[in-house]
Every structure is written in C-alpha cells, then in structure tokens.
C-alpha cells in the first residue's frame, strides 16, 4: 500500500507530464506563422550544424553539394558570377522558373533576391559560431510578397516558402554533418 502523499505526488507528476506532452503536441500542430511587415511575409529560421564555419562555406561553394540540398524543390543553373536561373519542381510535372541574384557579403554571409519570376522574394543567410563551440549556426531571413489566396493555396499544396526554407535548412544540416 502506498501512502496518500505518494499517491498525490504520482498524480501531480502524471498531470504535469500530460500537460507538457499536450502543449508540445499543440505547438507542433500549429502552422508556421510568417509575420507581415510592409507588405512582405517575413520568416526567420535558424539551425545549428555540428561543424565549423569553414565546412559550411565549403559546402555553399561546392555546386554539386548545394544542388543536393535543393534537389527536392529546385534546380540551379549559374548564368554568371552572381546571377542564377532556378526552376522549382512542380508535382504536375512542370516547373516554375525565376532568375535570382546571389551576393556574397563577406565570409559567412550571403543574400539573394529574385529579379524575374512569379513571386517577389529576397533573403539572407548568415553563419555565426554556435555558443560553447558547438558548431555553426545558420541564421536565415526570407521575405516574399503574396496575396492571401496564393498564400493559402501554397500552404495547402505544400509549396510554401516557409516550409521550403525549413526543409532546406534540415537537408543542409544532414548533408554537412554526414560529410
């Protein structure tokens, strides 16, 4: 037999655990929320990669490995020093094409903007050392313009820039850490 105090302690621990699991599940089910700022949808994402900054810079400058990171949703073709042709894959078999400018703003920092294409988009990525020498953080910000109907359609079909950014960051992390 257990005492009344032990039973209350076990009931309290079970309640705290149930509430914690419930909150975690609710947080994971909540859709990603991009902020609105001056007509732009803005999302910021980051991920820590367990490799030094040089390994990430090497990854970004290796065209073959970069293509692997983007393979699920786009292909790249370099037109000149900082202009690229991008084609996003489409489940119907077609593709959406755009042109983008990539600018390297120093070691570990780059920005991009779409110059021709269906969606006005710009973004930046920055590499910073992770706290306590635990690798490198990739901090990104993505901005795009869209109307509410197109945004809702993109979210339901899985062609949402937020999801693409998150998935690409996870793919980069796995490719860099596996090398």
Structural features, described:
- The protein has 179 residues and is an alpha+beta fold.
- The protein is 40% helix and 34% strand.
- It has helices spanning 4-29, 53-61, 63-70, 148-157, 161-178; strands at residues 35-37, 40-49, 74-78, 83-89, 95-104, 109-116, 121-129, 136-144.
- Strands 1-2-8-7-6-5-4-3 form an eight-stranded antiparallel β-sheet, covered by helices on one side.
- Helix 3 (63-70) crosses helix 5 (161-178).
- It is globular, with a radius of gyration of 21 Å.
- Mean pLDDT is 78; it is low at 26-30.
Count all strands and give the number: 8
Would you identify the regions where 5 or more consecutive residues have pLDDT less than 50?
A: 26-30
- The number of helical segments is 5
Shape, principal axes of CA atoms: globular
Order of helices and strands: HEEHHEEEEEEHH
Strand content: 25-35%
- Look at the structure and give the mean pLDDT: 78
Radius of gyration: 21 Å
InterPro entries: START-like_dom_sf
Protein name: Cyclase
Organism: Micromonospora sicca
Short structural description:
InterPro entries: START-like_dom_sf (IPR023393). The chain has 179 residues and is an alpha+beta fold.
Question: Which properties best describe this structure?
Answer:
179 residues; alpha+beta; eight-stranded antiparallel sheet
Summarize the SSE layout with pairings.
Elements: H1 4-29, E1 35-37, E2 40-49, H2 53-61, H3 63-70, E3 74-78, E4 83-89, E5 95-104, E6 109-116, E7 121-129, E8 136-144, H4 148-157, H5 161-178
Antiparallel strand pairs: 1-2, 2-8, 3-4, 4-5, 5-6, 6-7, 7-8
């Amino acid at each position: 037999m257990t005492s009344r105090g032990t039973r209350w302690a076990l009931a309290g621990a079970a309640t705290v655990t149930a509430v914690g699991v419930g909150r975690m599940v609710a947080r994971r089910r909540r859709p990603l929320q991009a902020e609105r700022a001056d007509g732009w949808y803005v999302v910021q994402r980051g991920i820590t990669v367990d490799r030094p900054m040089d390994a990430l810079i090497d990854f970004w400058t290796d065209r073959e490995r970069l293509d692997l990171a983007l393979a699920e949703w786009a292909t790249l073709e370099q037109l000149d020093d900082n202009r690229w042709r991008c084609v996003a894959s489409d489940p119907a078999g077609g593709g959406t094409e755009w042109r983008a400018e990539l600018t390297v703003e120093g070691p570990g920092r780059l920005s991009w903007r779409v110059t021709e294409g269906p969606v006005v988009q710009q973004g930046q990525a920055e590499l910073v050392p992770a706290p306590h020498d635990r690798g490198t953080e990739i901090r990104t910000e993505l901005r795009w313009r869209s109307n509410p109907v197109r945004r809702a359609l993109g979210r339901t079909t899985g062609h949402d820039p937020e999801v693409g950014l998150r998935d690409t960051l996870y793919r980069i992390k796995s490719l860099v850490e596996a090398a």
